[in-house]
Amino acid sequence: MIEITEEEIYLPEMIERARSKDAGAIVTFLGTVRDDGIEMLEVEAFREAALAELRAIEKEAMSRFSLKAVEVAHRTGSLAVGESIVAIVCSAGHRQEAFSGCRYIIDELKKRAPLWKKERGVRGERWVGHDEPAGK
Amino acid sequence: MRIVVLAFANFREILGKKREMEIKEGATIGDLLGELAAANQPFRVAAFDDSGALRDYVLIMVNRKRVSPALELSRPLQDGDELAIFPPLAGG
After folding, report:
1. Contact between residue B91 and residue A86 where contact means Cβ atoms under 8 Å apart
2. What does DSSP assign to residue A8?
């Protein structure tokens, strides 16, 4: 299942969905909110475009790494330090494919899925990943 | 013709999430961005440099496909197109 959700991510449910008789390995990745002096992280999505991109990435990973199942959940909304931002679960016949598939999905998600993060902290607010021009 | 304009992240804060714009037949992506900039000073400063060139960090999708602002500003829009404006991606 691929989802973009305002609800908390439950990794055990994703793992159970990825479990199968022909899988010998399940690899999980959790991205969490790091305390870089921030109070909250706001996550925003271009939901329809991000879902389409994540489904394309899932399809590529399934085919390249012979995965048995893929689960991706990405949060939106306000997140506190330590909360999960993104969870990825890959099952495969063997561990190498599961590790490689999981790494491929998070790397491609960061490059291609239209999602943004804004840090809110004691020093103010900033969108992650770019510096806005002065004068705004 | 009517174009749906979506904006995300810092551009949403400036332009609002969604608006419909009426532009002349044959108008290009560049024409639409120019109209937005003419009507909205904060957007002009955020999206264009002092020479009037679109800043590198402005990303565009038309009908949910990325377009290259460097190559496709002169591409004509069609009635009903959805154009999205956003900064570099930062998911995960």
Report:
1. yes
2. P
Q: Which domains are delineated in chain A? A: 2-122 (3.90.1170.40)
Classify residue A127 as exposed, middle or buried by CB count within 10 Å of its CB (0-12, 13-18, 19+). buried
Tokens of B65: 């496909």
What are the extents of the domains in chain B?
Answer: 2-86
Question: Following CA atoms B26, B36, B49, A127 in sequence, which dihedral angle do they give, to the nearest 10 degrees?
Answer: -120
Residue type, B67: V
Which H helix or E strand runs over B42?
A: helix B41-47
Q: Note the pLDDT tens digit of each residue in A105-128.
A: 999 999 999 999 999 998 899 999
Please name the residues between 74 and 93 in chain A that touch chain B, using a CB distance below 8 Å. 74, 85-86
- How many beta-carbon contacts under 8 Å exist across A and B? 80
The predicted complex's ipTM stands at: 0.92
Phi/psi at B2 (5° precision): -110, 130
Cβ of A114 within 8 Å of Cβ of B49? The answer is: no
Backbone φ, ψ for residue B19 (5° rounding): -150, 155
* pTM for this predicted structure: 0.93
Could you give the maximum distance between any two Cα atoms of chain B, in Å? 40
Are A102 and A29 a contacting pair, CB within 8 Å?
yes
The domain over range B2-86 is classified in CATH as 3.10.20.30 = yes
Return d(Cα B32, Cα A105) in angstroms, integer.
35
Cβ proximity of A31 and A89 under 8 Å: no
